[in-house]
Amino acid sequence: MEQVKNVAYTTAATAKGGRDGVVTSEDGVVDLPLGKPGSTSNPKANPETLFAAGYSACFSGALNLVASKEGLDTSESTVTATVKFGETEAGFGLAVDLVANIPGVDEAKAKELVEKAHQVCPYSKATRGNIEVNVSAG
Q: What is the C-alpha to C-alpha distance for residues 87 and 44, in angstroms, rounded to an integer?
């Protein structure tokens, strides 16, 4: 297990009431009512939405980092994380599809950058070997 040393940032969030409750970050940036996934009449944030937001943002940062080391500007790129929640053999689980759209970069280079980003992204490291994660350039 990789240990975190020289911690650069720490934050916390507190949830109360589970999927029908609320979640609040210690800095107040996140203060959301929660709801069950799939509600169309009164949609609210849920753990899967929050995970998708965090993973896509983190992966985008990793993509920009690996591209900048090669002299490439990928600041206009986008990363979409599609999080799936469903049954597994052991209960319920998650799967993630990450799709990076990198304008101005050919398909082969885009695939290479996405694979490199997947190796350095902290979310990718945290999920590796635990859940199915598919990465692609689109």
A: 22
81 and 131 housed in the same domain = yes
Q: What angle do CA 34, 45, 83 make, to 5 degrees?
A: 125
Check residue 32 and report its DSSP letter: E
> Which pLDDT tens digit goes with each residue over 102-136?
999 999 999 999 999 999 999 999 999 999 999 99
3-class secondary structure, 115: helix
Alpha carbon distance 49, 37 (integer Å)? 8
Q: Give the pTM.
A: 0.92
Residue 84 CB contacts under 8 Å (≥ 6 apart), including other chains: 94, 95, 96, 97
Does 106 share its domain with 78? yes
Q: What is the CATH number of the domain that holds 120?
A: 3.30.300.20
Is residue 18 helix, strand or coil? helix
